[in-house]
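Annotated sample (chain length 297).
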Amino acid sequence: MTSAKTEASRTLTGIALATCGWAAFSAQDAIVKWLVVKLPVAEVLFARSVMIVALASFVVRRADLRSMMQRRNLAAVAVRGLLILAAWLAYYSASRSLQLAELVTLYFAAPLFVVAMSNPILGEIVGPWRWMTTLIGFGGVLIAADLSAAPDVWPALLTLFGALCWAGTTILARSLSQAVSTAALMVGSNFLFVVACGFAAPFVFVWPDAFSFGLIVALGLVGSVGQFFLFEGLRRAPASALAPFEYTSLAWAILWGWLVFNDLPPRHVLIGAAIILCSGLFMLLIESRRHVLAARA
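Output written by the structure step:
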């Protein structure tokens, strides 16, 4: 019974940490959307990744790096890095054509993919409640996206492809988090970005103005915070339990879209967002009840 109580408590803590991480990522998305108007995607990702690697290097230990360098872990980190690269190039390329709220909404197919993959790959017991809340949230995604009214099909499909890749990175992060420290994961996950985007950046480099440079610094800091909280959340909670809470990013996306880009979301986006948030609250209620029952037992 003590182990059930501990597991339930860890799950709630993981949910809180991951939700903070997704809040940071929403700010990161807003900064990137602003930057890619003036700067190439490869340059933005290169600068962001260099900052994250530098910050994580201050706290990572040699033993953590040796653990990450084991063949199995290193292969998983490399595959995860490639999936992140594919996901973000697709995502930020599509951001040129879609509003921020629409972009994030389409990307929210990722939690559904995570729940679908968590059992066959991670062996997690998903259960009907996690499936139900994730499907309800995805129903809100479909309403908010209103793909029939999308300005262009290809940016929408590109975003969905990015969502599938991102789901794969979440599954791999959950698996790696049990053997590799958060700081080492941050170094390994972003080093591939440094190398890949470093080759492309000199050919497309645009010198940033002072304001853009400040945004790049902010991007590195916010991205570091987001990754730290997400990895720590995945270390504590099953991926399938965290998946529905990724939908909370939509509320932040709507807020940033309104404050920064003056994008006023239409009614169907607000309706879909309300459904998504309700699904997350319902999932939180279920996990909290598990914690209470475990404590009583």
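Annotation: The radius of gyration is 19 Å.
Annotation: The chain has a mean pLDDT of 82.
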